Amino acid sequence: MHTNTVLTPMLTDRDHVTAIAVVDLARELKRHAVINLTQIQNIDPKLAEYVVALEEDQDISELMERRYPESWIIALWQLADSNPLATSVGARIGATVSPEARGLLINLIQHCENLKEVLETYLNNISLANASESWKIGHRDNRIELTFSFTAGKLYPRCATERSMVALHKWAEYLCGQKIPVCSVEFTFPQPEYKDFLQRLFRCEIHFDCSRNTLILHEDVLFLPLPQRNRYVKGILEQKISSLCFPEENGSIEERARRLLRENLASYHSIENLAQALCMSRATLYRKLKEKKTSFSRLLDEERQRLLYLHRHLPAAQLCDLLGFRDTSAYYKARKRWN
């Protein structure tokens, strides 16, 4: 076994990831003979104990609500990257769906209606898993473009990026219970020696030395239903997640609500839709905004006024739709109140 000393950056107490993801990654790296138990123990002895427990099919559900330092998962990826015999390990791990190692977020999204709701729920709550991961959604010519990146300055190697991109595709197929065609894939790194393996995983054309790491799919895959969905269970999980005190890596609840309103006012002018996207009940959203000395109606009014100023040249009927009013009468009443 080739070993190297791994240097990780100094991280603050706020840099944490879901514990079960760290244990699962360590288990998979060990299973692929990329690292050994001693190397895992050097990161943390308790981590090694949970890896053994997972290997022996013991119950590790207690980890579902726990957080581990992000430095641990970065150290694991750097160990993998330093092993010259493990060049394709990120893609291989990404292709492995492990239902027994699901965290809160995966348990939640499996009860969404379709892949569109899966993406929205996942992206709005990605800090439950790892706030350093980011996916941006773009649309072009009836296709959806999913572009992945890690927070700048975080020392994640290439294999971590490969794992995240392959895993998104394979988990989508697992949740839908069917194959999902990919139009093409773009990677920022040079063509590796295991290009054929990546093509077998994605079953499409792959481009390297690109400006982004992107999966491109047909938009109609967004409406594929999830056979295991259960709205009642989803509601329970949303309440559970909203009661947890995870660090707000993606900003305060006020910032997240503002961001959603700004991205899609047409959808989120309804507090029910906004609360669902934020993975909490309507009452919880009210309470959390009140703790920040604000309210949903205030945030909505402020965003509507911002849009009105930017598009004040449009006729009233178009402004009514743009600002999410049910009719022109409600629009004019709001205008009078703002003045």
From TrEMBL:
Gene3D superfamilies: Homeodomain-like (1.10.10.60). Keywords: DNA-binding, Transcription, Transcription regulation. Residues 255-304 form the HTH araC/xylS-type domain. SMART domains: HTH_ARAC (SM00342). One of its GO terms (molecular function) is transcription cis-regulatory region binding. Pfam families: Arabinose_bd. One of its GO terms (cellular component) is cytosol. The keyword DNA-binding applies. This is AraC-like DNA-binding protein. It comes from Microbulbifer rhizosphaerae.
